[in-house]
Amino acid sequence: MKANLVLVAGLFTLVASARVQGAPGDSVYAAAAAALVDSYKGSKPPARVEELSAIYRRLRLLDGAGHLVLAGPKGSAFRGALGRHETELLASFDPAAEVQRILGCARQNPYLNDVMADLEKAVAGGTSYPFVKLAAAPEGAHTLRQVLAYSVALDRVGVLVRNDWHALAELHARYLEVRADPSFSKRFAEVANLFERAKVLTVDPAITAYLEYLATHKVPVESGRLGLAVNIAEAALEDTRLGFRDNASAAVTLMVRPVGNRELVDPKTFEGPSRMSKDNKAILWSPPLPEKWADLYSTWNLAFVSHYPNFPFFFAKLLNPDVLCYHHLPDGERSSPSEYVFHRVISLYLHIHFEILGRMDQLEAKSQPPVAWNDDGFTRLWAARNHQSAQAYACLVPHSAELARQALEKKAGEVAEKACELKTFAYNSVCEFADFAKSCVFVPKPAFPSK
């Protein structure tokens, strides 16, 4: 083990000295990949299966006997293939191969590559981040081992849902069952902040809508226009509260170029109506330049979640192959950029429960919180680059000042109304952090409901 840690530390030294050859940022990718693969050094297939099983147990999807826990209707075709599903979800995996899959897809995102190049320069210039040393320590290696298993689990469940929507019905029924337990309600407020509680309230309607669309093969052309904007706004407001305004401004760029905004597909930008995929197994949401939009969303959300102390687990919900691997695929085909949001919401839905239930387990066990990986300087570096990337994307899909003003004003009002309805936070005008929209008209803060 000591030799392995020396190897990882050596790779980070290469980052610091900028001696790794290749494209800018490659040394950061290489160091991260080495740390993940090294965390499984010497492990055997049974140990890898146990890592996966621990993830599914935390998700409340596996019982003590190692069987899937289901809550959907009995006698369904999905249940008829239960044995096959268990085998697929619990099969062992090759850590190096899984990491290479992630790495290959991550490198297709030019905005993410720019962040890695900035990080490479910062480390080479002497900036120190706590996660660098932590990744090479035994405790860090243990975390990375869990993170990779979590990524594998998210990828496999995502593929299962994509292949058979009844799997999503089973998941939703299971989590409604879990959250109906009095112990969950009692501890929910103890382990989740206002933003996280709002996230649970807003993701449930999305899953319910998914199930309806997948069952009927019909999607309203405007589907996602408001719901996705609210989802982004929730995170943007949290970023603003935490002081990461550069990242909040990138969120606004995504918000004012929404999905479900056209009745016909634009042949130049591929912006189009919300609709079913050709095989009727996924929902397509097509913002302007879907691949570039997904690239920006991915790097924006990675920066957002980097403020969490256990951010490597949050990274897994965005970097697992089912979510991440959408590049260079024809629009409308399986896992194309227009499917990005579909896969992203499934991963988010799972992660919300993974995180909340994990905190509850920790509270029950009265265990000490793990060592923190986050660093404000790291998040600010990422946010600053995202601000620039958002401007680059905006130039590809230009908005006139008047259109930007109208879109922001309308979106601010819609999000404000929804926020007050949920009673989760007082909405502060989107315009306050949309510094690129100079002509933006401020929307007054709505009053909190009296009850």
Layout of strands and helices, then pairs:
Blueprint: H1 2-17, H2 26-38, H3 45-58, H4 77-80, H5 82-90, H6 95-106, H7 110-124, H8 130-135, H9 138-163, H10 166-180, H11 182-191, H12 194-216, H13 225-242, H14 245-255, E1 275-276, E2 283-284, H15 290-305, H16 311-319, H17 321-324, H18 340-365, H19 376-396, H20 401-422
Antiparallel strand pairs: 1-2
Structural commentary:
With 451 residues, this protein is mostly helical. Helix content is 64%, strand content 1%. Helix 12 (194-216) packs across helix 18 and helix 13 packs across helix 20.
Biggest sheet strand line-up = 1-2
Order of helices and strands: HHHHHHHHHHHHHHEEHHHHHH
β-strand number: 2
Biggest β-sheet description: 2 strands, antiparallel
Give the terminus-to-terminus CA distance: 58 Å
Q: What sort of overall outline do the alpha carbons produce when their principal axes are compared? A: globular
Class inferred from helices and paired strands: mainly alpha
Estimated helix fraction:
55-70%
Instruction: State the low-pLDDT regions, or none.
Output: 1-20, 400-405, 419-451
Mean pLDDT: 84
- Beta fraction: under 5%
- Count, helices: 20
Radius of gyration: 22 Å
